[in-house]
Amino acid sequence: MRDLSDLVKAYDVRGVVPDQWDESLAFAFGAAFVRVVGASAVVVGHDMRPSSPGLTRAFALGAASYGADVVEIGLCSTDQLYYASGSLDLPGAMFTASHNPAQYNGIKLCRAGAAPVGQDTGLSEIRELVESWCGEDGTVSVPAAPAGTVTGELSARETLDGYAAHLRSLVDLTDIRPLKVAVDAGNGMGGHTVPTVLAGLPLDVVPMYFELDGTFPNHEANPLDPKNLVDLQAKVREVGADIGLAFDGDADRCFVVDERGEPVSPSAITALVAEREIVRARAAGEERPTVIHNLITSWTVPQIVSDLGAVPVRTRVGHSFIKQEMARTDAVFGGEHSAHYYFRDFWRADTGMLAALHVLAALGGQERPLSELCARYDRYAASGEINSTVADQAARTEAVRAVYGGLDGVSTDELDGLTVAGDDWWFNLRASNTEPLLRLNVEAKDPARMAELRDAVLAIVRA
Q1: In the list 211, 247, 344, 371, which could disulfide-bond 251, CB 3.0-4.6 Å?
Q2: For 229-254, what is each residue's pLDDT tens digit?
């Protein structure tokens, strides 16, 4: 039996094609998915990677072999697949490796209504089933479906127009002032969705790298890495754009650049969108809406939420935790420092496109430039995530705790890694689950205090 722990991660399937997986395994994952979730029908879609169409069709055939009808929506963004799962009320499978390099591919799975499938919600059972069908020599042998199973039918469906219409129904952009918007799709699925979603609005869109190309000839489709924002920053300055938007490979995350070409932190975007969603919920009669934020987002987020009379709820990093808390609390919105934004009106799933529409509406609904609009959402100095390679994650974390844990006026918690907080500063130190790394995030009231704290903690971590 083959060990698939290198392929099946905490939230999805992801690995190099064909070295780690291929169409025979994709077929097995399709059959196992149907068996574990008990689906009579599923919806599948894929990104623009060269390996995506073949893997997707193999998965569909595997699902059909175990009796599920399969709705194929073809090229789509991940949040377009979530739209299909939600609107059709079907479990779904999205073939993408998001921001990873071209040789990678993967599967993001969800239950009906875009409910997440992770290690604790079905993915571990799917992995165990597929492993039982794999030989040590790499062969895959999926057993025949139970007697009497009728092979499912495959059908095609167009969902892009419905996806765009649903997003546009949630944010009113009809009366905004004209805006010039530079958009870097990174040769990813934003090049597929942006033209339809933004069509007909008072926007002068300056497209960059809209050609779908899973070899990523211009730069990696990973805007979280500052080097991949350089082209967009230059374009914003060159054309005098009011705003720049950058999408990752599967276009479920959106990063924002202001009119000066300066990045706007995802925490500031979280606070801005949270304010809009709180105001909308309260106007609809909801007395104290809830907003979810992970523990790496700026303190600005819970402060803004509380100032508006709403309830901030702090959670661990990771979409499964955000979605679980949103379901538990019926939260109207959730945001992460990694530019994942979750909306109750979008089946609690993440959609960077809807967040982008909110930012465009906020910017176009008043006359100030984006840098001034976002200033009130940027109250602290942040380090960003800093990775350190260490031999013993636990020992280095304990060394940091030994220095800071006993200080007067300092609190600690272990919701996710080690968080240490003072009156006007905090830092979080988290161990990577897959690499020998410790990830440090620091925030303080001013840049000098942040830099001092950052350097002091790193000195301990790297000693």
Answers
A1: 247
A2: 999 999 999 999 999 999 999 999 99
DSSP conformation class of 213 = -
**Residue 49 and residue 104: Cα distance in Å, rounded?**
9
In 28-143, where do the E strands start and end? 41-46, 69-75, 92-95, 104-111, 115-116
Residues 43 and 156: their CA atoms lie apart, in Å, by: 10
Asked if residue 103 lies in contact with residue 17, where contact means CB atoms within 8 angstroms, the answer is yes
Residue 344 carries which DSSP code? G
The closest alpha carbon to 243, from 372, 413, 402, 360, belongs to 360
Residues 309, 313, 314, 320, CA torsion sign: negative
C-alpha closest to that of 133 among 273, 215, 29: 29
What does the alpha-carbon distance between residue 97 and residue 169 come to, in Å, rounded to a whole number?
29
pTM of this prediction? Answer: 0.95
Closest CA to 341 of 384, 375, 293: 293
| Catalytic-role residue among 98, 267, 298, 383 | 98
1: pLDDT strictly greater than 90: no
CA 251 to CA 414: how far, in whole Å?
Answer: 32
Pairing of the two strands 418-421 and 411-413: antiparallel
Beta strands in 92-233 (DSSP E): 92-95, 104-111, 115-116, 154-156, 179-184, 203-208
- DSSP string for residues in 210-271: -S--TT-SSS-S-TTSGGGGHHHHHHHHHHT-SEEEEE-TTS--EEEE-TTSPEEPHHHHHH
Helix (H/G/I), strand (E/B), else coil: 208: strand
* Cα distance between the two ends of the chain: 42
Distances in whole angstroms, Cα of residue 178 to Cα of each of 263, 356, 360, 373, 412: 21, 16, 10, 16, 47
- Give all domains of the chain, ordered by start, each with its CATH number: 13-158 (3.40.120.10), 162-260 (3.40.120.10), 266-377 (3.40.120.10), 381-461 (3.30.310.50)
Phi and psi angles of residue 292, each rounded to the nearest 5 degrees, phi first: -95, 140
Would you call 388 a catalytic residue per the annotation?
no
Tokens 């209504």: give the residue: 113
pLDDT of residue 406: 84
As a whole number of angstroms, the distance between CA 79 and CA 81 comes to 5
- For the segment 263-276, what is each residue's pLDDT rounded down to a tens digit? 999 999 999 999 99
The predicted model gives 343-351 an average pLDDT of 97
* Mean pLDDT, range 113-135, rounded to an integer: 94
Cβ(442)–Cβ(452) below 8 Å: no
pLDDT tens per residue across span 281-326:
999 999 999 999 999 999 999 999 999 999 999 999 888 889 889 9
